[in-house]
Design brief:
Elements lengths: L3 E6 L2 E6 L9 H16 L5 E6 L22 H8 L6 E5 L2 E3 L1 H7 L3 E5 L3 E3 L13 H9 L1 H10 L3 E2 H6 L5 E3 L3 H14 L16 H11 L8 H14 L2 H16 L2 H15 L18 E4 L3 H11 L5 E4 L3 H20 L5 H8 L2 E4 L10 E4 L5 H14 L5 E4 L6 H5 L8 E6 L8 E6 L5 H13 L3 E5 L7 H18 L3 H11 L5 H8 L1 H8 L13 H8 L12 E4 L2 E4 L1 H13 L9 H21 L6 H12 L8 H8 L1 H15 L8 H8 L1
Parallel strand pairs: 2-3, 3-4, 4-6, 5-7, 6-9, 10-11, 10-13, 11-12, 13-14, 14-15, 16-17
Antiparallel strand pairs: 1-2, 7-8, 15-16, 18-19
The structure holds (2S,3S)-3-hydroxy-2-methylbutanoyl-COA.
Amino acid sequence: MSVVSTEINNEIAVITIDNPPVNALSHAVREGVSRALQDVGAKDGVRAIILCCAGRTFCAGADISEFGKPPKSPTLPELMEQMDHITIPLIAAIHGTALGGGFELALCCHYRILEAAAKVGLPEVNLGLIPGAGGTQRLPRLIGVSQALDMIISGKPVSAEKALSLKIADRISQNTLEQDALAFAEEIIKDYRPIRRISALDVKADPIFFENFGKKIASKTRGFLAPIAAIEAVKAATTQSFEEGLKVERTEFIKLVEGPQSKAQRHLFFAEREAAKVPGIDKNTAVLDIRQVAIIGGGIMGCGIAVNFLNKLLPVTLLEISPEACETARQKITEIYGSSVKKGRITEDQKDKMLAQLTLTCAYHDISDADLVIEAVFENMDVKKQVFEKLDSVAKPTAILATNTSFLDLNEMASAISRPQNVIGLHFFSPAHIMPLLEIIRTDHTSDEVLATALKLAKMIGKTAVVSGVCYGFIANRMSSCYGREAGLLLLEGAGVEQVDRVLYDFGMPMGMFTMLDMAGIDIGVMARENISPENYDQRAFAIHAALVKAGYKGQKTGAGFYTYDGQQKTANPMVNELAQKFAEEFQIIRRPISDQEIEERCIFALINEGYKIVEEGIALRASDVDVVFTAAFGFPRYRGGPLFYAEQIGFDYVVRKINEFAKTHGDRWWRPSKLLINMAAK
Ligand code: T1G
């Protein structure tokens, strides 16, 4: 079946691409479009060409699965070159999302008509790339360098309305796109409208603009190469001819597509989609209808979780223990929406509609109709068991009973009720309405139907879902506790707070370990560890944390923690060094100068080793799931692909060798290399 077809009706040729699921510009599509344009160009009497797509969207870009393979002609640039010489008006009829190469294809057309709900964008930066088929040269010529760079660096698509205001779109279709596109073509023919090649336009800009733009984005794009390349390519559009500018774009694109950063980000693109695929769960697995949601507990997490569902206009009943607590919860949720309106993310009217779906109650019988109940009460097993027992008696038989616990044993929780098959973990990350990751924890009894429903829900509320088995800390927090253990031990061994944080920040983490602990509150971890038996963690590594909290230093919220805070100024808290020396003596740890490399490898290789153990034990379904979790939950730099992808890039054998060295110097209680990691190294 050809992926490109052509129909010619009185003077108008309609070329349709049909390459499910997203009309990616695979070699077959490029070849088909090229041949169709040649055939149509050779026909007399054709006076306008419409380029459109079947299925759910206009072309969503180059076929990412083709990257890394030798390019096959016609490449996208070759197709664009051919289109730039067409002398018949070319009209792109866009629905869904015209992204990357798909949008570049549309920019090679002379006119663009968009469906009202359509979006266009250049998300290549999310793959560690820049537009590689003329986007960095044509878009600035059409909308100016500032707007063009904003779109290219943010990678965010713009709506049809915005596209119209930017003159990217000539028309918005109000009826059916097909009819409106034909009518537009007839108009163009009747009015003898000209060929409008964007490549023939000119664009100028003050060179200082690019320098300032680079400074403006520096903090957000720290470590990423693609944004810098994008600025170079767009600058070339203002200083060189179109042909020369294309060469600059191509050179920068090739460097990126062959480089480690794009390979890492393409790995994550597919990993995030793979994570939602669970063996045994497919489109034939029954799913439950979720029409009403109940949340137990209106704390920060409960309110954040509620917002995810209110955003989708699902009725949410939030239960708290008193009218005052209900009122506090309502205020929290109202504040969340208030700030979204202030930031222009939603309108006042949308806020009202979402808040109208919220009901607060103190009575359990008010949630008896809920299809999904999520408890987000205090992180204590007894408290959670009581809630589950109550839910077991009031919730309807098909209700999914979910817990937001971040590390407690769900199998034990489920054992307290008559329907363990309905129990699942939905572990949101704070702030729950913003953080993209959702760990879905399946117990020994969770039914396929409940799991399939949770996966569908995650997609509906826009979360990246990763399925985890039951273990302490599941995937994210279990790995994070190992990373935190090494950072804590390094302080006792002689590393400074600022040195550890600088090394981890320079590695690409959003912030150092101790800066993060001060921000989140050191007491959170101290309290969580009170629930863990001492043999399950290294008490020495967290002795300073406990002592600081005991002395009232809980982090930013108390004005001091690992650092003291004086306005924006933060300096290492001298008490930390005193405690480090005291505990080093107590634990008979010999202090010594510690290199930056050891700090990085001790912390990052601890993540890698624990991540492979999590896969080995079957807690995670696959290594790429662990990468998705640790990049989404803790900001592991996406340009390194995640801890386990990074291990592959630096060499499994090197990692195993270093882990064995650490085992010799620090004992093998924690430094026993994962068997799976050893096997990977052996391969
Ligand atoms: N290439 C190959 N496969 C793709 C693809 C692509 N561009 N986009 C999506 N898929 C697959 C995806 O893996 C999944 O497969 C299925 O389609 C549905 O995707 C030269 C170099 C379009 C907004 O970055 O953002 O053009 O899991 O689950 O949630 O300058 O897909 O079913 O087997 O995400 O409805 C630029 C990437 C490429 C767009 C739809 N384009 N795609 O979201 O479905 S680089 C992009 C998306 C480029 C040029 C440069 C989303 C979507 P499977 P999905 P969705």
